[in-house]
Amino acid sequence: MGTGTHQGRSIDLSADVGELTGDEGRALDLALIGHVTTAHLACGGHAGDARSMHAGVEACLRAGTRVGAHPSYDDRAGFGRMPSTAAPSAVAASVVAQLEALVAITTACGGALESIKPHGQLYHDLEGDEPLQEAVFSAINDVVPGAIIVLGAGSAAAPAAHEAGLVPAAEGFMDRRYDADGRLVPRGQPGAVLEDPEMAARQAVLLATAGVQASSTVLRVDSLCVHSDSPTALAVLVAATDALRREGLRVRPIER
Predict the structure, then answer these.
(1) What CATH number is associated with residue 141?
(2) SS3 164
(3) Taking a C-beta distance cutoff of 8 angstroms, is the pair 223, 7 a contact?
(4) What is the Cα–Cα distance from 191 to 38, expressed in whole angstroms?
(5) Could you tell me if residue 48 is inside a domain?
(6) Is residue 256 part of a domain?
(7) In the chain, where does DSSP find H-type helix?
(8) pLDDT 10s digit of each residue in the chain, 256 long?
(9) H/E/C letters for each residue in 190-213?
(10) Do the domain assignments include residue 137?
């Protein structure tokens, strides 16, 4: 790395925050927010509460970081990673309630909510469930018209999001390993999570410059995410930022 051959290209750096509890969780959130261009705040579905949302929004505004939302299925017990049997309309209503809670706090702090990233199982289920796509994307656009909607690179849900009035953005994970088909290696498998900062930094550069390699297809990446529940999240983010800048990439929010 360090060739600077990608001068002028840009990439968004994001973190999912508000997912860890207590003072230690808030401290890590604040540190991460200072190093990303977009922060997606848990807003009550799988994690997060009014206190964590308020702290996150204020930190974003101080750092000049874009405020985003991280809604999920109503599943605090399963951390939003369990399948839901709720009807699409019920899921959409839950997402609306989560977004409205964060919008109220963001507005009161003098900011604006601009980006939405579904969490966990909802993120994955939106990929192939058309009724769920229609209900959730329409509901999101009602609350935050024209918002950026962050989906996995190559997501089949992107056209439906665009049709609903949202701005789809393709996400890659600097701290997760991909298989040969461009899918995330399941967390339970050895090496699925990249905790070594230098390994994650190399992956960040690869995703930003070459995209996700999916068999014979290359999937564009607009935003790189680090998970806040990783023990080395902050070190990964610092190493990745340095590596990206050495390659000549600008780190900046996605344009709407």
Answers:
(1) 3.20.20.370
(2) coil
(3) no
(4) 27
(5) yes
(6) no
(7) 22-33, 50-63, 88-108, 120-125, 130-143, 158-163, 197-210, 233-246
(8) 455 555 568 999 999 999 988 888 889 999 999 999 999 999 999 999 999 999 999 999 999 999 999 999 999 999 999 999 999 999 999 999 999 999 999 999 999 999 999 999 999 999 999 999 999 999 999 999 999 999 999 999 999 999 999 999 999 999 999 998 888 998 889 989 999 999 999 999 999 999 998 888 999 999 999 988 788 999 999 999 999 999 999 999 998 7
(9) CCCECCCHHHHHHHHHHHHHHCEE
(10) yes
Q: Which structural domain, as residue segments, surrounds residue 59?
A: 10-251
CB neighbourhood size of 51 (10 A): 11
Structure tokens given for 246:
């050495």
CA distance 133 to 229: 27
Amino acid at 131: P
Task: Give per-residue burial for 91-114: e unless 16+ CB within 10 Å, then b.
Answer: bbebbbebbebbbebbeebebebb
Question: Angle, to 10 degrees, between the axis of helix 197-210 and the axis of helix 233-246?
Answer: 50
